[in-house]
From TrEMBL:
<dbReference type="InterPro" id="IPR029058">
    <property type="entry name" value="AB_hydrolase_fold"/>
</dbReference>
<feature type="signal peptide">
    <location>
        <begin position="1"/>
        <end position="20"/>
    </location>
</feature>
<protein>
    <recommendedName>
        <fullName>Esterase</fullName>
    </recommendedName>
</protein>
<keyword id="KW-0732">Signal</keyword>
Length: 268
């Protein structure tokens, strides 16, 4: 009986010591942020995130990788400019709507990329270079780690579409990032009419395509002036298509505008 009691006391003491030790703080390795793939195997038909640095600031971006990428790395890419509008409810599904627009076209496989947390107050006059540098660094990252196919499309709506148009006009041919542009419901069209009237942009360009559209809430006269000016200029380097969605609004027109623009860019 005495032996049994001693064994029980020893067991209780051991358990107490173990529990006391378990309360000590255990140092663990912090989670690793994936800066350069592969941090693991690429899974297809999914979204991956990555980080880039532009002008000393870190940016998180994401990329849609279709199943086709498993056997064909030479895919074109679409870059979505997605910022928060100041006067409208924020759409959170623009990235998905770009992917859906691609999936409507049989046999089309593309990478879709966007960056998070763009400043919605960026404007084409004061902030274009900062915006362009961010996307230049993202394009460089994607080119190094995913695909070096130089077919790149820039797409956006609202104030983001103003940055898309600014890229079309302001890019220099020798350092161009994009060949194709999709812009819907663009504010500030007077600025673009002015630079076309004055020729205030690099004139040497080649093989560009633009799909431009506007909805029923947009200023019809301003949009038509832009369309007519662009048509009258007849730039030899630009293939241009436009569309009006008079029965739609800023809130619900972009899925159709994106799908129509993607079809114009990629369908033969």
């Amino acid at each position: 009986m005495k032996t049994k009691l001693i064994l029980q006391m020893f067991a209780y003491a051991f358990i107490g010591f173990f529990l006391a030790c378990s309360d000590d703080e255990v140092e663990t390795e912090p989670p690793q942020i994936c800066d350069t793939p592969p941090c693991g195997p690429i899974i297809f038909d999914r979204v991956e995130t990555f980080l880039i640095t532009s002008n000393g600031k870190r940016w998180e971006a994401k990329i849609w990788i279709p199943a086709e990428y498993e056997t064909n790395k030479d895919l074109p890419s679409i870059y979505l400019v997605d910022d928060e509008e100041q006067h409208y409810p924020v759409a959170t599904d623009e990235f998905e709507k770009v992917i859906e627009g691609c999936q409507r076209i049989g046999g089309l496989n593309v990478l879709v990329i966007t960056v998070a947390d763009l400043d919605p107050n960026m404007n084409v006059v004061n902030d274009f270079q900062e915006f362009y540098d961010i996307y230049k660094d993202i394009v460089s990252y994607v080119e190094t780690n995913y695909t070096d196919n130089d077919s790149r499309t820039l797409i956006g709506r609202g104030s983001a579409a103003s940055l898309v148009l600014a890229t079309l006009f302001m890019e220099k041919q020798e350092t161009t990032l994009f060949q194709h542009y999709i812009a819907t419901t663009v504010p500030g069209l007077a600025y673009f009419n002015e630079i076309m009237d004055k020729g205030n942009f690099p004139p040497e360009k080649s093989d560009k395509k633009l799909h431009f559209s506007f909805d029923g809430e947009s200023n019809y006269d301003l949009n038509m002036r832009f369309i007519n000016t662009l048509s009258d200029k007849a730039y030899p380097w630009l293939e241009f298509e436009w569309a009006e969605y008079p029965d739609m609004t800023f809130i619900n027109s972009y899925p159709t505008a994106y799908a129509d623009g993607i079809a114009f860019i990629f369908e033969e």
